[in-house]
Amino acid sequence: MTLYKVTGPDGNPFHGGSGAWSLPKNGKPGAWRKVKGKLVPCENGLHLCEAKHLLDWLGPIIWEAECRGKRIDHNDKIVVREARLIRQCGGWTEQTARLFAADCAERTLKIANDERCDAAILATRQYAFDLIDDAARAAARAAARAAARAAARDAAWAARAAAGDAARAAARDAAWAAAWAAAWAARAAAWAARAAEQEWQTDRLIQYLTGKVDIDAIRKSVEVQS
Fold first, then answer.
1. pLDDT tens across the length of the chain (226 residues)
2. What's the chain's Rg over C-alpha atoms?
3. How far separated are the first and last CA of the chain, in Å rounded?
4. What angle in degrees, to the nearest 10, is found between the helix axes of 94-106 and 115-128?
5. What are the E-state strand segments in 117-219?
6. Could you give the CA distance from residue 10 to residue 23 in angstroms, rounded to a whole number?
7. In what helix (H) or strand (E) does residue 80 lie, and over which residues does it extend?
8. Which of 65, 100, 210, 222 has the fewest C-beta atoms lying within 10 Å of its C-beta?
């Protein structure tokens, strides 16, 4: 089973905790890290997660990790005594985070059925490939907000939320945050099928992490639409 750890660029924990992780170098894993005392989720221990919970922990850098010794499975996290980072998921970048956000949001557009939401998704992808200027990006955000005001409640609200998140992704430095927000908005849009939606998002995320998404094909499609 592949486990994951999310950190900042310097190896420091991104979702709380202290102490930088030893980073893999020259194809070799980082050094083992160990904690003492009783393992207590969210209080004491090294925290990792499985792929099915990775959507809850998105951040700038995602690593494959491994553990040994005592382990506690707790909700969306795994608390362990010893762990180390194996390799960086090189497919996760600012660009792919934006593209993933657009993918998640796009799945809800069937509910919204609004061309302004379509424009917001396109703007996100254009920005990922540096194919849009500031003025056009601002116009897409404004259109998404207008669609939000015009849309109905309930399911349509969730759809416009996803589209709005994607539009904001085009203007945010923290692309991973927009990806996380879009993923949750998209799941909310199909709450009755939430498990299936989460499974789709997780599979798509892993495709990005492992470099199995044809980025060139996406770019060509965006250029045609542009």
1. 899 999 998 999 998 888 999 999 999 999 999 999 999 999 999 999 999 999 889 899 999 999 999 999 999 999 999 999 999 999 999 899 989 988 887 876 666 677 777 887 888 899 889 998 878 877 776 776 666 555 544 444 444 454 455 545 444 445 666 666 666 666 665 555 667 778 888 999 999 999 999 999 999 999 999 8
2. 19
3. 41
4. 160
5. none
6. 9
7. strand 77-88
8. 210
CA dist 173 → 37, 42, 97, 169, 182 (Å): 38, 28, 11, 8, 15
pTM of the full structure: 0.82
* H/E element, 84: strand 77-88
> Would you state the structure tokens that stand for residue 39, as one six-digit string?
């393992």
Beta bridge partners of 80: 46, 71
Domain ranges of the chain: 3-88, 94-225
